[in-house]
Amino acid sequence: MAGPAFRAAAVRVRVPATSANLGPGFDAFGLALGLYDDIVVRVADAGLHIDIAGEGADTLPRDERHLVVRSMRTAFDRLGGQPRGLEVVCANRIPHGRGLGSSSAAIVAGVMAARAVTVGGAEAMDRNAVLALASEIEGHPDNVAACVLGGFTIAWTDGPQGGGEAHAVTLTPHQDVVPVVFVPADPVLTEVARGLLPATVPHADAAANVGRAALLVEALTHRPELLLPATEDRLHQDYRTPAMPLSAELVARLRAEGIPAVISGAGPTVLALADAGTAEKVRAVAGPAWSANRLDMDTEGAAVLPLAELAEGSAEAGAPGPGNAVSGTPTGESEL
Ligand SMILES: Nc1ncnc2c1ncn2[C@@H]1O[C@H](COP(=O)(O)OP(=O)(O)O)[C@@H](O)[C@H]1O
Ligand SMILES: N[C@@H](CCOP(=O)(O)O)C(=O)O
């Protein structure tokens, strides 16, 4: 049987950073943030060529091991076949191994791009299918859901043990919420942080998280004044403290001052859910050892954009600017 046809034109995909868990919603909650990776993909006659600017330019492989490419390959298989060659250009702004969903963004970018360059790809694979496939590759659906759908997402998987097909709903976060992130210079890989979690947890801790997670849905969408109690967690953050003691200390200090702060994803980034009135206090409480970066919330999720916008929104990967760069020592206009 003949494989699929491919578009000759290049496609550009933009994917947001995400903060998973948000305290009690382990492997379920995600929030999309206004910080983006861009990839441009073109089907070629032969070979694989990868260009990388920004995060990971010095470290990522430029061959079939590259996560965007691996994800594209999986998606092409599902869509009926591989193209003869590929050119991939990555402009990376989401820091790696910091708990801001860089791996999910890379996976979603790859799946979205494969779908966009395949004739009939969007019809063959709708957004729910993108979410399911990207979650399967990532292994947990929380970042992927927020990355695909934007906004504040609640994800779940089928099956008695979880591991089945992923689904999600997206809600609109309250407009007064101001995410502020503190990104440590050194990474902690998600795999390592997941390895610190126990196989079982006390029933009382699970019960406490159920109540807080339910409350967080109301707090993040309608009543941000409840965010402090709503972001309490007993399932993962304490267990991970040995891998990120300074982040844990900052979370405790911010919370003691009444600021809803959590470990972002598997860490070590700290996320504070401030508002216009407290954003400056957040910076002051954190002190000079930490750089505070205020980010917008993203409500669109992964998008296939016209190539023309690449030139217009052409902030160099890694260059500081609103929504354009966060690094171990963030600087620029997005800094508080
Ligand atoms: N844009 C990207 N392109 C290729 N690989 C990526 C990209 N972003 C992340 N990765 C891969 O994912 C790893 C980080 O994933 P992970 O430990 O889950 O941290 P994060 O919290 O940033 O998702 C990187 O070390 C790299 O191997
Ligand atoms: N629920 C996951 C979230 C991992 O997010 P990341 O941004 O650190 O990849 C976990 O807590 O392990």
TrEMBL record:
Top EC class of this enzyme: transferase
Subcellular location: Cytoplasm
Pfam families membership: GHMP_kinases_C, GHMP_kinases_N
Family affiliation: Belongs to the GHMP kinase family. Homoserine kinase subfamily.
Cross-referenced NCBIfam families: thrB (TIGR00191)
HAMAP family per UniProt: Homoser_kinase (MF_00384)
Protein name: Homoserine kinase
Originating species: Streptacidiphilus monticola
